[in-house]
Design a protein that fits this description.
With 495 residues, this protein is mainly alpha-helical. It has two domains: 194 residues, no CATH class; 212 residues, no CATH class. 72% of the residues lie in helices and 1% in strands. It is built from 21 helices and two strands. Strands 1-2 form a two-stranded antiparallel sheet. β1 and β2 form a beta hairpin. α15 runs antiparallel to α16. 39% of the residues are buried. About 1% of the residues have low confidence.
């Protein structure tokens, strides 16, 4: 939806109403717009998200009351209340986890058990009908992680329960970040809703920053990611028909595609939020500039990695119980991370690889060893792991990796292959230029510890407007859209 003409129309209507209606109506407008947006994408999923919102709202209020009541009791009775509070939060969080697991893994498990064979039950075909009904609503994983984090923070006393259902619903479902995050913390987002009355249309600085975020996001998505997708899809669909060079190129292209696709979405979401005066968390910090795998996860999908750290790694014991326990906890966290991304052994292997990388990195740093070429090594590790992430199964991933080492190199067929995967001539130049622009911008941002839109805003007006025009021209001339083209959905929509 973000890369169709429908979204600008929808966004235009919401922005117009936002600044025309009385300021006290703004939270309600964003609430209604978010659920209309959700229903527009997936009407069936809308009911699920509304029910989850109501459950989280009531559970949060109940949990806060139990927690406050516990604090008011004497020490002896307090122990019983502690068990009651702990029991309730386990029930509430457990319910959310079960719902997420049912939708994320239910269809996969049914197909695995029945091997895709229909089972007749009085003329009803199962498990296909059941599997179809368990298609995961768009954005459910991000939705659930926010809900779980919200309840966990109430339990730990980091925040209070939100009594206003409209505010909580807006926090969970705010439409720019609904599809693919970032994962927000309630203490960062909810107070901003109170300040919506102060947002003014004529704030040129805010609007300029917002449009910079959005233009850069659309450039990454439409000019780079979607062009790379054409080639990547063909290589991964039939890896046995390509030599080692093209398999390596396909892995590299996917590495850039998933970054530009996901980071592009995040920039668009942040820009949309800024139009309404809402600041969303930065999700990417030049991840391919990382000098170690630990550094990579401080830069990649920052909202997810910080969520896993705070709500899984630290509760497991973190690094407080010795190096062995730290390594085990690290592997568990990354295994969960892989499983969160999708149903399939290959996702678990992707997470396990990053867990192993991180354990080795921790041991090397503890031993005090200096690794030369850490940046290149990290990039190679990440590219290799992405193969398992992109493949449709573990078998396909292993076959792809095997092909890299056994398929050989046949330069005489490269021209024919380039034409077959649609990267001949001008197309190749556009792809190479797009990748180069992204990597150069990331280098500049990494050196100055700023993201691209903030870096642009620090330039003089003439330079800033020139960048605006160049991005617009690039998107319109080289972006993937128009008749006969089916827009690639954002990769993280499936998670």
């Amino acid at each position: 939806m973000f890369v169709t003409m429908i979204f600008p129309v929808f966004m235009g209507i919401v922005v117009t109403l936002f600044f025309l209606l009385p300021v006290k109506c703004r939270p309600a407008l964003l609430f209604l717009s978010s659920y209309v947006f959700c229903g527009w994408i997936d009407m069936r999923g809308l009911a699920v998200l509304i029910l989850i919102s109501i459950f989280t709202w009531r559970a949060g209020i109940r949990l806060e009351r139990l927690r406050d009541k516990m604090r008011g009791e004497n020490a002896e009775r307090g122990r019983g209340k502690t068990r009651q509070v702990r029991g309730f939060v386990i029930f509430a969080v457990g319910f959310l986890v079960i719902v997420l697991c049912v939708y994320k893994y239910g269809a996969w498990l049914l197909n695995l058990v029945f091997n895709g064979n229909p089972v007749s039950c009085g003329g009803w075909q199962a498990p296909q009908r059941i599997a179809a009904s368990l298609a995961m609503p768009v954005g459910l994983s991000f939705y659930m992680f926010q809900a779980i984090g919200y309840l966990a923070d109430i339990y730990k006393g980091k925040s209070g329960a939100e009594k206003n259902f409209i505010y909580l619903g807006c926090y969970l479902a705010f439409f720019p970040k609904l599809v693919s995050g970032p994962i927000l913390r309630e203490q960062d987002f909810l107070p901003q809703l109170e300040r919506l009355t102060q947002v003014r249309f004529g704030d040129r600085g805010r609007l300029s920053t917002a449009f910079t975020y959005m233009l850069w996001g659309y450039f990454m998505k439409m000019v780079v990611a979607d062009r790379l997708a054409v080639t990547v899809n063909q290589i991964f669909a039939a890896p046995e028909t390509f030599d080692s060079f093209w398999l390596l190129l396909g892995a590299f292209f996917y590495t850039m595609q998933i970054y530009c696709d996901f980071a592009g979405y995040s920039y668009i979401a942040i820009g949309c939020g800024k139009i309404f005066g809402l600041d969303l968390a930065q999700n990417f910090k030049a991840p391919y500039c990382a000098v170690s795998i630990t550094d990579f996860w401080r830069r990649w999908h920052v909202s997810l990695s910080s969520w896993l750290r705070d709500y899984l790694y630290i509760p497991l014991g973190g690094n407080r119980k010795g190096i062995a326990r730290k390594c085990i906890n690290t592997v568990i966290v990354f295994l969960v991370c892989g499983m969160w991304h999708g149903a399939g052994i290959h996702f678990a292997v992707w997470g396990l690889l990053h867990g192993i990388y991180s354990v080795i990195d921790a041991l090397v740093r503890k031993a005090g060893w200096k690794i030369r070429g850490g940046r290149l090594l990290t990039f190679v590790e990440v590219v290799f792991a992405w193969i398992f992430f992109r493949a449709q199964s573990l078998r396909e991933a292993l076959s792809y990796v095997s092909g890299i080492f056994t398929a050989g190199i046949h330069p005489e067929k490269w021209r024919e292959t380039a034409e077959a995967v649609q990267i001949g001539g001008v197309e190749a130049l556009v792809i190479v230029s797009g990748i180069a622009v992204v990597l150069i911008i990331d280098e500049l941002c990494n050196a100055r510890k700023l993201n691209m839109p903030v870096l642009v805003q620090k330039k003089e007006n003439a330079v800033r407007y020139l960048i605006f025009y160049l991005l617009v021209i690039a998107i319109f001339i080289f972006g993937m859209y128009g008749p006969g083209y089916h827009a690639e959905q954002f990769i993280y929509m499936q998670f």
